[in-house]
Amino acid sequence: MNEQDLARRIARHLDSGTDQLPASVLYKLRAARETALERAREPALTHLGGGLLAAGADGRRLVGPLAGVALMLVLLFYWHSLQQQQGPANELAELDAEVLTDDLPVSAYLDQGFEVWLYHHSKPGSEQ
Amino acid sequence: MALPPLQAWLGAVVLGATLLLATLPAAAAGAGPAWKELTAEQQRILAPLQDDWPHIEADRRLKWIDIAKRYPTMTPQQQQRLQSRMKNWASLSREERTEVRKRYKMLQKMPPEKRAEIQRKWAEYDSLPEEEKQQLRQAHPAPARKSKPAN
Lengths: 128, 151
Known about the structure:
Chain A has 7 helices and no strands. Chain A has helices at 3-18, 23-41, 44-49, 52-55, 57-101, 106-110, 112-122.
């Protein structure tokens, strides 16, 4: 007798008992089977959660690390955005502080008359 | 009571992260610190800007606060210059400030003797009668440099 024959015999023996099962037991088995099939059709992630009661400790164990990763990402992005904002602002503050405290006043850079005057007084031998 | 499924937890975390990301930079930029939120020391240094402060954009407010931080390291002369010039500086348009910064950088690249000469010439120009300066302003733009006689 090979393995397949043995399996068939066992299955036949088990099946012979199912005909005598009470209706209430059959009903419970059918319901359990349908529930199991229904769950098998759902995405794995839903099952993991499936309510933490259903997923048990697995779901609970995942929440912490995932929340931690999300928090780290948030902090990383926030730090990065702050760096981007502060970098140019600091440079500009430094430059403006220099401009505002320089020997040459700000008006010298914008006074168009000075530009003309400077041009005429820069030409060799053209002192007025 | 059934606890929410993991998907709901994840959704909440992702939503929270998104909201945080969206609001934090905005809060950092925002309207900028109000005048009353400045320290007494910052208010003293930036006093010339007090009236204009509500109209100054957030990024510029932060810049002024940064400048105020540098104030204690400045010489008394620099401190006096800063305070006497900041109001006028704040009243300039963005384009004018950009132009000044550009010209300042150009000047800094010149040799020290050339910079000193320009400062001396400014002092000369500044001492001219206002009428004469006005005439010169009306003569702007200055003749093109290419018409300058060759040395």
